[in-house]
TrEMBL record:
Source organism (scientific name): Amnibacterium kyonggiense
Identification of the protein by name: Aryl-alcohol dehydrogenase-like predicted oxidoreductase
Entries under SUPFAM superfamilies matching the protein: NAD(P)-linked oxidoreductase (SSF51430)
Keyword RNA-binding: no
Entries under CDD domains matching the protein: AKR_unchar (cd19103)
Keywords carried by this UniProt record: Oxidoreductase
Entries under InterPro entries matching the protein: AKR, AKR_Detox_Biosynth, NAD(P)_OxRdtase_dom_sf, NADP_OxRdtase_dom
Record's GO cellular component terms: cytosol
GO molecular function: oxidoreductase activity
Domain NADP-dependent oxidoreductase: 13-301
Amino acid sequence: MTNDDWILAPAALGTWAWGDSGEHGDGYFGSELDPAALDQLADMAHAAGLTLWDTALVYGMGRSEQVLGRVLQRFDRADYQLSTKFTPQIAADGVDAVGDMLERSLANLGTDYIDLYWIHNPADVTRWTPRLIPLLEAGTIKHVGVSNHDLAQIQQADRILGEAGFRVEAVQNHYSLLYRGSERAGILDWAGGRGIPFFAYMVLEQGALTGRYGPSNPLPDGSARAQTYNRLLPQLQALTNGLTEIGRSRVASAADVAVAWAIAKGTRPIVGVTKPQHIDGLVRARRIELTGADIEHLEGLADAADVDTRAAWEHVM
């Protein structure tokens, strides 16, 4: 394997929830993290050829990266790919804020290079994008992506990098049945026309589209995602029922079908994984072939739900 294997990755393994403390109800997701289960899911993922891991320094302010770094010690560095992020909103004042944040990520992850390094939010494209060029030239980061950028900002970052002989090589935005802003804004078409992978995060809307939760079984109290999604669960019932129905005919879950939809739309889903069964689900999702009628039906149900799941940190695409 090489550090360019991420280019062909069918999906990425998301570790945002690994930034939680691991105690029930404590953290953005309120996830319970079992170190042995994380080790098991990593083994299962790599056995299935899923070797691209997505994290960020801002996830638990280093905790996600640290937990991931421990888990990945079991593998040779050439056998997995790391995706992490520079987040302008938490950058310290200094001459090299990007390099400083990268050094923290490298230390947390126990590595000396990052395969795919993202500018997490646009903030100031002309200020931050050029700071990545010396890191590319040094080989500390191998490739650059942009996350939460609109089309004009992506194109601007691409021009800046292009002047130094580099380019935007990946795009990562919120994209799900409930939030298709990047599709409607032409970002999927722009990236696809240039062979640039589009990574879709929040495909499952933080669990709200898994079919596991509903009005009578809300998301865990005390978590930020519960505050966002529990009030929407009644409106999502028809959609989750539709996902469940399609999944039943394919011996799959509602979550598997939601991920399969994202794959069918030409994206690479970033699926949050905290338990071994999440790897099983991702493997199933990759095998599901949805028909055009399936896709039209699901998108109709999603439109009828009439909810806006754009997060506070996201701007209109």
